[in-house]
Design a protein that fits this description.
Blueprint: H1 25-36, H2 39-57, E1 65-66, E2 69-70, H3 71-92, H4 94-100, H5 103-108, H6 114-143, H7 150-177, H8 182-197, H9 209-215, H10 219-232, H11 237-260
Length: 265
């Protein structure tokens, strides 16, 4: 007695394609919940940025005037950028863990568009970056040393939030290049070094001319100038060009590496 199996061929033309390239709030909600359950993420998001502001914001000279505020406000804007950049990069780099578990290969079997996947990662990074910015600003309000008009305070926070997209794309890019949990071991020290060199921790005026010329080409320089622009009213054109160029490079790199990725690492 023999059995025969029949197979049905699905016509690709009749296959239903999900709207918006597969974007859906369920996946977005799962991503957010997973990030918020990560203790290391919570430390980076809520504790570390505020602690950095307290460490830098209470030094001598914090009452000196800078633009529409004072030095403490300048430091607050800088620490909000660093905290949100670190948090966004950490969120993006989670793709490294997803690849190690084979989750990326599973997603490639679905109709989910690679661009939509990166967009959802960016939205999660925006939410997490927003929490980091809110945490730093809350510490600044409680401490009471940062002084600037309310509208400037809000403008700095909003502009900084959009600047975090650059580092969300960087995190995704590194996550597809570096295997497993090594991604944050590279991103953490790397972002700290770029922040020192890009004028986030130390104003560029304190550096030698040679170091300043190098700093103008780093990914942190442009976004730092933009994040503090509502306060300082100083925004060189080459700082905007720097920020746009690095954002485009990281997005293109992330999309390229995702399109090439098929392996379980």
């Amino acid at each position: 007695m023999s059995t025969s199996a029949t197979t049905a061929t699905i016509d690709p033309a009749t296959r239903r394609v999900p709207p918006l390239g597969g974007f859906n709030t369920t996946v977005l909600r799962i991503e957010l919940r997973r990030m918020l359950r990560n203790r290391r993420t919570i430390v980076f998001t809520l504790l570390f940025p505020g602690a950095m502001f307290l460490a830098f914001g209470g030094q001598h000279g914090w009452q000196d005037k800078v633009g529409d505020g004072n030095v403490a406000a300048y430091i607050l804007a800088s620490m909000a950028l660093y905290g949100s950049a670190l948090t966004a990069a950490a969120g993006g780099s989670m793709v490294a863990l997803e690849r190690s578990l084979g989750w990326s290969r599973q997603l490639r079997l679905t109709p989910l568009n690679p661009v939509v996947y990166i967009l959802m990662k960016a939205l999660v990074a925006l939410v997490m970056g927003g929490l980091a910015i809110a945490a730093v600003n809350l510490v600044g309000i409680v401490q009471g040393k940062a002084q600037m008009p309310t509208h400037v305070w809000i403008e700095c926070a909003v502009v900084t939030l959009f600047c975090t997209l650059t580092f969300a794309a960087l995190g995704v890019f590194i996550g597809y290049v570096v295997p497993g949990e090594n991604a944050m071991q590279i991103l953490g020290p790397g972002l700290a070094l770029l922040s020192f060199l890009g004028g986030v921790f130390v104003p560029l005026d304190n550096y030698a001319e040679t170091v300043r010329q190098i700093a103008y080409w780093t990914p942190m320089y442009g976004v730092a100038e933009i994040a503090r622009w509502p306060l300082t009213h100083e925004l060189p054109w080459y700082a905007v060009l720097n920020a746009v160029a690095w954002f485009a490079i990281f997005v293109a790199g992330a999309a390229w590496r995702m399109s090439k990725d098929t392996a379980r690492v």
